[in-house]
Design a protein that fits this description.
Elements lengths: L8 E2 L3 E5 L3 E6 L8 E4 L3 E8 L4 E8 L4 E10 L4 E7 L19 E3 L15 H11 L35
Parallel strand pairs: 1-6, 2-9
Antiparallel strand pairs: 2-3, 3-8, 4-5, 5-6, 7-8
Length: 170
Amino acid sequence: MAGKGDTSIVHPPVLWAQRNDVVFLTVDMQDMKRPDIKLEETRLSLKGKGGQEGKEYVVDIEFFKEINIQNSRYAVRPRNIEFTISKKEPGPYWDRLLKVKQKVHWLKTDFQKWKDEDDSDDDGGDRNLEDMMAQMGGGFDGDGLPDMDDIAPDDEDKPDSDDEELPDLE
C-alpha cells in the first residue's frame, strides 16, 4: 500500500543547460543497469532502479517546445545518464525546460555546461582574460604566467618578516 509517506519512488536530481540547437540534461541516477527511457517529441520519461538501496527512480519531463528525436542521444554511465537533446527548431533559447511554468525541487541549472545565448561559439576566454588584465594594468606573457617585470630587483634582497628566526621551543 503506497501511502503519503511512501519514499520508494524518488525524483533524482536533474541538471540542464542549453544552446540554440540543443538541450543538455544530466540525470543523477547511480548504478542504473537497464533504465526504461522513452523520448518523444514533447516528453522524456525515464524510470529504473538504482543506488545502494535499489530505489525506484522516475523522471517525467514535458518539454517547453518540441524536440528532434532522431538527432537526440543519451549515454548511461555509472553515476548518471547524460542526454543531448536536439531542439526541433533551432533558434532562440527556451524560456525554461518544462512546459508548465513551475519550480520543481529536483531540476537545477547546469552551470558547467550553460552558455549565455549572446555568447558566440568561439568564446575566446583566454583572449578576454588577457584583455581584461591588460586594462587592469597586469597581463600574461606568452607562457601564460603573470608578467613580473614590474617587480623591482632591490626587493629580492630585503628580508621578509617570514625570514626571521623563531625562538626555540622548550
